[in-house]
């Protein structure tokens, strides 16, 4: 059996989740008639203390619909240099919404409120681009699953709000941040104008994300979702997977986090420069291969021969992600194997 550590999106719906999907009440969601979609939207909005929510097929779409309600064409969104919105959504903000982006770099993607505020230029007048929103990613994917400190989020909210800049949360893995930090979802939600969350990552649903905001913004986003071609019909069968995930899978994320830490510790023992286990906060382990003669692509290819799948996200950056479909035994096998590869190729 393969041990797939490429992403937490690779999980397959469990038999119980499939049963919930099969028995879901459905209707035409474009007409607002799907009761399972409606109840999921209400449920998730309430969890984050928001007025309304919109079910989307992907987190990218939820992000893009959110930021387009905050930033007008020709205005600017600030995001961290390694953020999903600027690196992994294929320029959607520019292509679909005429939004320009500027970035600020942060160590492991961790927010320090003063840094985006230093870059921000609100109400810039007729000559310079005006900043109208700031995006925060929590947990930070390419930052190695790091959790954003609530104190810095609050400080950024205070400073940005004072100058009329809105905030968007890319909360694809906000569930991971929540179970690990103990911060209530509503306490995260409160600090943002728009929030995106994914059910298809660690929560194990086959598809599904939501955008959360005010009734007015969600109404606007609903129109744009249809305009983009993502008005969906009897998708209560998908929303039912989301309900199932929320009912059962949030506490299980703790196991993913413990397993990621365990992998990091095993690898650290034989290849300490690749990973500092104390930086592994949630379910992502980013390996720095700078001190090894092997590239991330080569490491990934070698692992694949042994049935271990890992992500090569940069020439010298590999990513291991834990999720529901792994076992303790698989984690140990994979970590020992990767550790041995790194030990063998250590150069400096
Ligand atoms: C996965 C992810 C998304 C959304 O991805 P989709 O594949 O479009 O669902 C957004 N932000 C972050 C940080 C992610 O990891």
TrEMBL record:
One of its GO terms (biological process) is glycine biosynthetic process. InterPro entries: ArAA_b-elim_lyase/Thr_aldolase, Low_specificity_L-TA-like, PyrdxlP-dep_Trfase, PyrdxlP-dep_Trfase_major, PyrdxlP-dep_Trfase_small. GO terms for molecular function: L-allo-threonine aldolase activity. Coiled coil: none annotated. The keyword Lyase applies. Its cofactor is pyridoxal 5'-phosphate. The keyword Kinase does not apply. Residues 4-286 form the Aromatic amino acid beta-eliminating lyase/threonine aldolase domain. Signal peptide: none annotated. One of its GO terms (cellular component) is cytosol. Keywords: Lyase, Pyridoxal phosphate. Belongs to the threonine aldolase family. PANTHER family: L-THREONINE ALDOLASE, L-THREONINE ALDOLASE-RELATED. NCBIfam families: GntG_guanitoxin. This is Unannotated protein. It comes from freshwater metagenome. The lineage of its organism: unclassified sequences, metagenomes, ecological metagenomes.
């Amino acid at each position: 059996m393969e041990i797939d550590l490429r992403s937490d999106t690779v999980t397959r719906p469990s038999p119980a989740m499939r049963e919930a999907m099969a028995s879901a009440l459905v209707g035409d969601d474009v007409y607002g008639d799907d009761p399972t979609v409606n109840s999921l939207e209400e449920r998730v909005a309430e969890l984050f203390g928001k007025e309304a929510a919109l079910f989307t097929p992907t987190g990218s779409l939820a992000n893009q619909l959110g930021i387009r309600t905050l930033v007008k064409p020709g205005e600017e969104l600030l995001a961290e240099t390694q953020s999903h919105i600027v690196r992994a959504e294929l320029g959607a903000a520019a292509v679909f919404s005429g939004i320009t982006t500027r970035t600020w770099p942060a160590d492991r993607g961790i927010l320090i409120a003063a840094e985006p505020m230093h870059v921000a230029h609100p109400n810039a007048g007729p000559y310079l681009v005006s900043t109208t929103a700031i995006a925060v990613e929590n947990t930070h994917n390419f930052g190695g699953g790091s959790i954003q400190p609530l104190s810095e989020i609050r400080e950024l909210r205070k400073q940005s709000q004072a100058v009329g800049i809105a905030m968007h949360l890319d909360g694809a893995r906000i569930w991971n941040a929540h179970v690990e930090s103990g911060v209530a979802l509503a306490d995260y939600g409160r600090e943002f104008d728009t929030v995106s969350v994914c059910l298809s990552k660690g929560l194990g649903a086959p598809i599904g994300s939501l955008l959360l905001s005010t009734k007015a913004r969600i109404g606007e986003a609903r129109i744009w979702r249809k305009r983009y071609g993502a008005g969906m019909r009897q998708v209560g069968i998908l929303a039912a997977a989301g309900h199932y995930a929320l009912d059962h899978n949030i506490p299980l994320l703790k196991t993913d986090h413990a397993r990621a830490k365990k992998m990091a510790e095993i690898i650290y023992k034989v290849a300490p420069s690749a990973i500092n286990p104390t930086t592994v906060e949630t379910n992502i382990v980013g390996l720095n291969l700078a001190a090894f003669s092997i590239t991330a692509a080569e490491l990934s290819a070698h692992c694949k021969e042994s049935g271990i799948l890992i992500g090569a996200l940069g020439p010298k950056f590999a990513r291991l992600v834990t999720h529901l479909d792994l076992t303790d035994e698989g984690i140990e096998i994979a970590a020992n194997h990767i550790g041995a590869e790194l030990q063998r190729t250590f150069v400096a």
